[in-house]
Design goal:
Length: 280
């Protein structure tokens, strides 16, 4: 085994998929940073030496199949997505997540950090998102659990809790699904993809998103809403869905980017912002 770490600075890309992985590799490379893509299996089935209670940066891992160790002091930061190999065994899935979380907290800057039960940020249900944001003083929609009766005018049904289409469309009844009745959003429906303070505003147009422009005052209000939501949930990047008529109303947030956003004109600027953030 190599005696110690070299001078190379590395960013770990854990369970990331295209196109985010490719965009990050390119942007990190332009900053003189190496990147290493690993999935959960490569870590939990390899050698892990991260002594509990030691200062950040101590220890090393040797991913499955690797000949040389990776010293944590070399790691500038990490980005992670959910474990695609997690099984239905709750204990096993939680232990795998805990190992990744421990690793992320022991090396560099973990963007969208998770908890011991998740290796990356995980958003709660829509009602809890609304409750937490309302407690923080943010405007949120009114809602109730739908009892299957006639829906009042001005309300819509929601079942796709993480559907970015702003939950505007009643997507049909599903058996044994929780159905929420939500007061229809007033004004323009929009999505804000954010990486730190870098914002890209998009609005739904049919099955696609198109870039959206707001007057300076409205843009400042959306930026304030985004900063507040980041603080409430402790996240660094993601997609915020909101409506706007006189003031922005929070609808939902997810801690990742959709592929169609990354493959569009905003993809490189968002990845560039992430590369800056993770390498600080």
């Amino acid at each position: 085994m190599r005696d110690g770490p070299g001078d190379e600075r590395i960013v770990l890309l854990l369970n990331l998929a295209e196109p985010l992985e490719r965009l990050l590799r390119e942007n990190l490379g332009r900053r003189g940073l190496a990147s290493r893509s690993l999935d959960t299996d490569a870590i939990v089935l390899g050698d892990i030496h991260v002594p509990i209670g030691d200062p950040a940066g101590e220890g090393w891992i040797r991913p499955r199949g690797a000949m040389q160790p990776l010293f944590l002091s070399q790691v500038a930061g990490t980005l992670a997505d959910l474990d695609p190999g997690a099984s239905g065994d709750v204990f096993s899935a939680c232990e795998r997540a805990a190992v990744l979380h421990m690793l992320r907290m022991a090396c560099g800057n973990p963007l969208n950090r998770g908890t011991s039960g998740s290796a990356c940020a995980y958003m709660v249900s829509l009602p809890e998102q609304w409750a937490r944001c309302a407690r923080a003083g943010l405007a949120c929609p009114q809602w109730q659990v739908h009892d299957g009766g006639t829906l009042a005018d001005g309300w819509l049904l929601v079942s796709g809790l993480y559907d970015r289409s702003l939950r505007r469309v009643d997507d049909g009844e599903g058996e044994d699904e929780v159905r929420l009745a939500v007061q229809s959003p007033r004004g323009a429906a929009a999505c804000c993809a954010f990486a730190g303070d870098v914002l890209t505003l998009l609005r739904p147009e049919g099955d696609r998103l198109v870039e959206m422009h707001l007057p300076d005052r409205a843009l400042d209000e959306v930026a304030e809403l985004t900063a507040a939501v980041r603080h409430v949930f402790g996240i660094d990047y993601g997609e915020l869905v909101f409506s706007y008529l006189g003031q922005p109303v929070f609808w939902s947030v997810v801690p990742q980017f959709s592929p169609d956003i990354l493959e569009g004109p905003a993809g490189d600027s968002l990845a560039e912002a992430l590369a800056d953030m993770v390498s600080r």
